[in-house]
Design brief:
With 318 residues, the protein is mainly alpha-helical. It has 15 helices and two strands. The C terminus is likely disordered.
């Protein structure tokens, strides 16, 4: 087990180094002067040169990269010249919003996929199966920004069930907090439910074809016991792995939904960093999101290893 964790951790460090090189290189190659963009077109050459020196942009690229890399290992993600704050501070302020959005979306997508996927497998080639498959394909193909605007117009402006934009902190009450995060969570969940539903359906069909299901039927067990206690429990190993990967994807891919609904999360901060050409902010956000996604993936792999005894046996045999 420890050997497996060591291998995954080593691989994670390699991925981080590769992402850091790509991120730094891309920002170096993009045309334009970051100091000039920050100060504006009317800034004097002297002010631009002074800001370049203050930002360290006048040094050779390899020195800039090395200093930035050393800072990463010290959890120093740099300082945003746009906000005048440390990148870590900006992330701490906005991370609860993104994590809340991703968590609620994952819960909604998981519950929906488990229910519809299980019903589709049990009622294979029936109307229930066809409806579930259609919903799966529809959810995967609808763009998040279009669906978000549609939901804002209908549920926010027409029916006035939900606020059309903004975020309410849990400090102001659980009800207002859930009310503000509900609609964007639904939009994000719809885009992710398709793959998970497909995985649940496939795994459930495989479980229903196993010998232990024939034994359960021979014993005369109730249908609810057979499907919930035996088939579904056996079928959840693959979906759990997919859930973890999708959650990691949600954490790193909330830019569109946060922008549409005006949520002050990490995803929207990435968009601001790109628009304003805040190099240090963008670099720090990319590396933080990469580290977070890798950490979540590692934890999911370890959890699946404990859940699935077959993986533990294979690892002991290596």
């Amino acid at each position: 087990m420890f050997g497996y964790i060591y291998k995954r951790t080593s691989h994670a460090i390699e991925v981080l180094l590769i992402v850091s090189i790509i991120t730094f290189a891309v920002l170096q190659w993009i045309p334009g002067d970051a100091a000039q963009l920050i100060l504006g077109a009317e800034a004097t050459p002297e002010k631009v040169a002074a800001l370049r020196t203050a930002m360290g942009l006048d040094r050779p690229w390899y020195i800039q990269y090395w200093d930035w890399l050393k800072g990463l290992f010290q959890l120093d993600l740099g300082r945003s010249y746009l906000f005048g704050q440390e990148v870590v501070t900006l992330i701490q302020q906005r991370l609860p919003v993104t994590m809340s959005l991703a968590a609620f979306s994952m819960i909604l997508a998981s519950v929906t996929a488990i229910i519809l996927g299980s019903m589709a497998a049990i009622k294979k080639n029936t109307t229930v199966d066809y409806i579930s498959t259609s919903l799966m394909q529809l959810g995967s193909s609808v763009p998040a920004f279009w669906l978000g605007m549609l939901f804002i117009v209908y549920f926010g402006l027409e029916l006035k069930w939900f606020p059309v934009a903004g975020y309410v902190s849990p400090d102001h009450g659980l009800g207002p907090y859930l009310h503000s995060i509900a609609l964007p969570s639904i939009v994000l969940a719809i885009g992710e439910v398709g793959m998970l539903l497909r995985t649940v359906r496939t795994s459930m069909l495989d479980s229903l074809s196993q010998d232990f299901m024939d034994m359960a039927k021979a014993k005369g067990l109730a249908s609810s016991t057979m499907y919930l206690k035996y088939a579904l429990r056996s079928a959840m190993i693959a979906p759990i792995n997919v859930m973890g990967l999708q959650f990691a994807k949600m954490v790193g891919g909330t830019v569109v939904v946060e922008s549409v609904f005006g949520l002050p999360g990490v995803g929207r901060l990435v968009l601001v960093a790109v628009e304003q050409r805040d190099i240090f902010l963008f670099q720090g956000l990319v590396m933080f999101i990469t580290m977070l996604v890798i950490l979540i993936s590692l934890l999911v792999d370890i959890a699946v290893m404990f859940i699935n005894p077959r993986i533990r046996i294979e690892m002991q045999g290596e």
